[in-house]
Amino acid sequence: MGKKKSLNAKRLTKQQVQELIESQGKLHEEFTAFFGETYSTGYRHQDLVYELSGDRFLLVFDPKGISIPGKGDIYPKEYFLRWIRCRQKVKEHCANGRGSSVAHWLYYSKHKEQVVHKIDELMDELVRCLEISPDRLDFSYKSLDILSSKAEEYGLEKIQSELYDNLVAYVGEVIRRRVDGRWAIREDYPGCAYPIISVNEGVLMPINVVWQELNEVDPMNLRKEAANEVRRFSLKYR
Questions:
Q1: pLDDT tens, 138-150?
Q2: Where are the beta strands (DSSP E) in the chain?
Q3: Domains of the chain with bracketed CATH
């Protein structure tokens, strides 16, 4: 979780943390347990979470830790809860072998490698389900802002289970047109085939873009990640 999201401009000192805890802090046992982690050495790393007044949470770094023991940050409740949910999803995916973008997509994809043959069909379905006027999805970066907003309204869990391929198809088309590429299938090993955008010897990954934003703490921003993917490609291959 980026520090920029904290309500405090600078990380709180141990003294400031203690004053907050003594004046208004209430230990949140469930979230504190969630932040516990036992290392292979047997050491138990344990950050602490306190509820504060005004719909805020205080995250205290492991008092017995090495780098910043006992210091802390304050976060607004809405953002903190979203971050907790995000971490829970990531833990679940990793525990079930879905820790990479390709593995995650393969698990949820309805069409697998056939996606590349259903691009128009998938985009039409996306327009209908998210109730977007077709002329607003013009394959520009701006259209990705519209799509991101509509996806948030629809619910990212539903997007993940129902429209994952559709998002990959549209994001891929935006990228493909931007770099003058073509859809192709890449197979890393039997049973692991997935769609890419191919440009000469270069490869762009619309799956990476969608996966990143489905598992991001902040509201979905497909424009940012699509632009990052194109920029990464441009720096490496051009």
A1: 999 999 999 999 9
A2: 26-27, 36-38, 44-46, 48-52, 56-60, 72-76, 182-187, 193-199, 202-204
A3: 3-87 (no CATH), 98-237 (1.20.120.1090)
